[in-house]
Design brief:
Helix content: 25-40%
Number of domains: 1
Radius of gyration: 13 Å
Strand order of the largest sheet: 2-3-1-4
CATH class: Alpha Beta
CATH topology: Alpha-Beta Plaits
Length: 93
C-alpha cells in the first residue's frame, strides 16, 4: 500500500474577507474531489482572509498511480489564477 500527501500553502490576492476566501478554497477543494479519488481538507491559515492551506491525501496499491494523481492535482492547483503558491510539500509513505 502506498500513501502520498500534498500540502499547499497559498495566498489569495483578491480575497478581502473570509467569505471571499471560503469561496476560493471551497471551489478548489471541490474541483480536486471531482477529478481525483483523494481526501482534501482545509488544514491551516483559517483565520486569515488572504491565505489558505489545503491538504490532500491519496492511498493506493501502486506507488506510480498515487504519484500520478498527485502530479495531476499539483498541476490543477498551479494553474488556478486566483491563488499564488507560497509553499508546496509532497510526502510519500
Amino acid at each position: 500500500m502506498r500513501v502520498a500527501t500534498l500540502e499547499v500553502d497559498f495566498r489569495i490576492p483578491g480575497a478581502d474577507s473570509l467569505k471571499a476566501k471560503r469561496k476560493v478554497v471551497a471551489s478548489l477543494r471541490d474541483r480536486i474531489r471531482a477529478r481525483f479519488p483523494v481526501a482534501v481538507a482545509e488544514t491551516g491559515n483559517q483565520e486569515f482572509h488572504a491565505r489558505g492551506m489545503i491538504g490532500v491525501a491519496a492511498v493506493g496499491g501502486e506507488g506510480a498511480a498515487v504519484e500520478r494523481a498527485l502530479d495531476g492535482i499539483q498541476r490543477l492547483i498551479e494553474s488556478d489564477p486566483r491563488i499564488l503558491i507560497v509553499e508546496l510539500v509532497r510526502d510519500s509513505y
